[in-house]
Specification:
Blueprint (H helix, E strand, L loop, with lengths): L10 H18 L10 H24 L4 H30 L2 H15 L3 H7 L16 H21 L3 H22 L4 H6 L1 H20 L8 H17 L12 H12 L6 H6 L2 H8 L1 H19 L5 H28 L5 H24 L9 H11 L9 E2 L9 E5 L7 E5 L1 H16 L4 E5 L9 E5 L4 H17 L8 E5 L2 H6 L11 E5 L7 H18 L3 E5 L10 H10 L13 E3 H20 L4 E3 L10 E3 L1 E2 L2 E2 L9 H6 L5 H8 L1
Parallel strand pairs: 3-4, 3-6, 6-8, 8-10
Antiparallel strand pairs: 1-2, 2-4, 5-7, 9-11, 12-13
Helix pairs in contact: 1-2, 1-13, 1-14, 2-6, 2-9, 2-11, 3-4, 3-14, 3-15, 3-16, 4-5, 4-16, 5-6, 6-9, 7-9, 9-11, 10-11, 14-15, 17-22, 21-23
Amino acid sequence: MSGASPQAYRPEIDGLRAIAVISVVLYHFGVPLQGGFTGVDVFFVISGFLIGGILWREHRDTGRIRLVAFYIRRFRRLAPAFFTMLFATFALGWFILLPFEYREFAKSAIAATVYLSNVLFFRSAGYFDTVSEEKPLLHTWSLAVEEQFYIVLPLLFIALAWARKSFLLTLGIVWIGSLIACIVLTPNHPTATFFLFPFRAWELLSGVLLAIYVAERRTPIELPASVSILGLICLIASFALIPAGEKFPGYLAVLPVFGTVLLLLNGASNNVVNATLSRAIPVFFGKISYSLYLWHWPILVLALYLRGEFGGPIEIAAWLLVCLVIATLSWRFVELPVRKSQSISGRMIFGGTVVASGLALAISAGVFKQNGITTRFTETAQTHIGATADFLQDWSRCEVHADGPFKGLELCPIGPEGAPKLLVWGDSHVRALREGLDLASHEANTPGVIIWRAGCPPLFGLEKVENSATPSQNSACGEANRQIDVALSQMPSLETILLVGRWTYYWSGTGDGLDEHNEITVMASADPNQPQTEALHEAAKTTVERLMSSGKKVFVFEQPPEVAGYDSRLAARHHALSTVPFSNTKTIDTDMNLSDVADRQDGFNGVWTALEADAKIKIIRSWEQFCDDATCSAIHDGIGQYFDNNHLTNSAALRIRNVFEPIFESNAQ
């Protein structure tokens, strides 16, 4: 035969695409559909089914895979709408995104262009990472997974399809291995199993194996309508019941995958489910599903960036309509003309894709190199914009110990090389102080080391449960502190320990102002029912006494005043976007009454003051660096001092580094 037998058009697959894309879009726009994100899993199975079927029939009928032709078809199908969306988002981002977000957008554009955005978003999921709602290309992670699948699957066909049994056995083994790895690793590595191809491969291969089974059947498959109904029930249950979080994908992803397989398997059956999916409206949404998926997320991100939050159901409906209109235009005037045109050759498609990719990479690299082009905005906006990026630091000296007493813990040297004399132990406030501590250590010629863990009080004998942390992160706090307790005895060079923390957060159990939604419960390991403040009081005394008994001098850094209503990103956004159409940014407070600061922070401060009065510790005072007699400010001499309402910027840490002089003077004695 001269070519592979074509696959007949199946309208119910477009209807199935419609269900998938609508569930994802509604979920992202906040419509109560807690498992709507599983529509992506439906897409994975459909993609595997269609692409796997094409490749299998081509090899079966011709004995080979025309790799170049396959990729040209993929480029023709996917590239035009993708690059249209990408360049349009670049243009809108120029007016809307702040420099740091624009820089990060450029970085993600590079990754998306080379089909690695899933790897980027996996690697960048960290404590200070931009939140999901500020990443216009976050949704391209699933496209990257599919593109990686398009690369791997044809090569597998070429390598193994000459021996049908070996090929099918290999696919089966990979399917089982991927599924088992996904289920086993999700509880402890949910970010990896969510974003990375090896743990999603089983979903795509479910479609591939089904396509091979269907292609090799001599007669059409017509099962009872109950099979299709069961498949639809599985999808509805997935959309309605599966919660977002660290349990997904894991075993939970089996439900939407199984449901999709059933619907695809019984697609030829004349039943009410297939008839409904084949109607004009579902088919239309299926046809525009790629464009709708491409466009809905950047529209949502940029709209929220401008609006802060939506005003209610009517505004959400309006933005959904915008998505639908733009997706329809993209499908009609970008996707279809390129896909259907007989005058656009494969060479033109390849050349156009190369040129568009090169242009995207060049623009992205330029924006990234210029740090998002700060000069687009006013001087006032630039003050706050500077603070948004003034937390990036060099952690290249850090090392996670593979063995020894600190096995599994990250230690970050500061100051000159040498055995550490100073240990700075704390939470994310240590991270914020890092630049100032490092320079102060160099100036005092005193080697030191930093150990920090976000949201974890640097005190012995405590456990914590924080609503913004995962269960594994919560349990790791107490485990790490117990390990540090034992390991300190094996660092004979240590002379001084500086404790740093957001003490008032642990004392009160909540954030303040803009982060009042953050909640933490701190409890004594020995008595979880002990009141939180009592547990903290006892832990502070116990920790200090234990450190003193080992011959260490103990210093405590007074938590800088919280400026409850300040966030550099929101302030920058307000000053940068207030004149942009449709913007609804809020005025952000840069000041805080000193009396209000004292009311909130005096609780734990009283514990430290009592220990200082007993000559057990020295407190490093910070308030006078940010406050006058009445007011504390997030701005000093026109320079942002706070990243958010409680973390300092690098500039602030460097400016106040002289407050650490008593620590180094004690080491010199």
